[in-house]
Amino acid sequence: MADFYTPSGSNGRAWVIGRDDNLDLALLEVISPGQVYPSFNLAKTGDPQLDQDFVLLRQGGLTDVVQKNSSRIIGSRQDFNTGLRYIQLQGLSNEDSDGSALIDNSGLLRGIRMNEQHMLDIAIGRTGEIYALSVDGLISTVIPRLETGVSIIDAPLSGTSKGTPPSIPAIFKGTIKIDSRSATKGTRVYAKVSKVGSSDLWFSTTVEKTGEYLLPISISRTGYTNATVQFWAGKYPASATSIFVAARTTTINIDVP
Predict the structure, then answer these.
(1) Phi, psi dihedrals of residue 145, rounded to the nearest 5°
(2) Under CATH, what is the fold of the domain 2-147?
(3) What is the homologous superfamily of the domain 170-256 according to CATH?
(4) Could you report the per-residue pLDDT of 138-183, keeping only the tens digit for each?
(5) In angstroms, what CA-CA distances link 81 with 78, 122, 151?
């Protein structure tokens, strides 16, 4: 589970389907939007032409209205480590524009505006330059990767260090049904670990065999022994709960109405 915020300060909640800090992108399923956001159908469009005019759209700013800025294509470069192509835009970098949608004159999504530091890190951009990841790369590479539930996070977890091994996980397993039907392969299962005085922790896995799940939970922070574990599938919680004890295997069947 994640909280997200727009530059205007409005916020919402979402499931984190996948996150890859090496790509500087995450895939969220918004469950509490708080407001209406622009949406676009994804379709491969090929590389844009030089000097083609575009509009950068973003939500927020000093107001909740959609902000629009015109730009023009001045080049493109490819990351040979990932195969992803990045479109260079005319103008100077602005942090508030990170994540903006790149729209052509036909109203088609052509890319997503990337963070300047990320472009420096992958040795493509220079200070002040603007790049957007092409929509073709989003469709063919990024979204399929994030949909697998990948979790690559550069930021260290609180209470851990590079020299600290992960704790022995607690294992939760059993049958899983949604609307009284066995959950199909690929269904995502979530667990929320809660304890008074501590932050909630979220974990997830995908069903590998129809009707059955296996979810390991490893917590390096202290103070979570006997914490309550609540299970979710889709957007809804199951009635069954358990407790977290490291190194213990617990069989608990999940039935989500």
Answers:
(1) -65, -45
(2) Thrombin, subunit H (2.40.10)
(3) Carboxypeptidase-like, regulatory domain (2.60.40.1120)
(4) 988 998 988 887 777 775 444 444 444 556 788 999 999 999 999 9
(5) 9, 9, 19
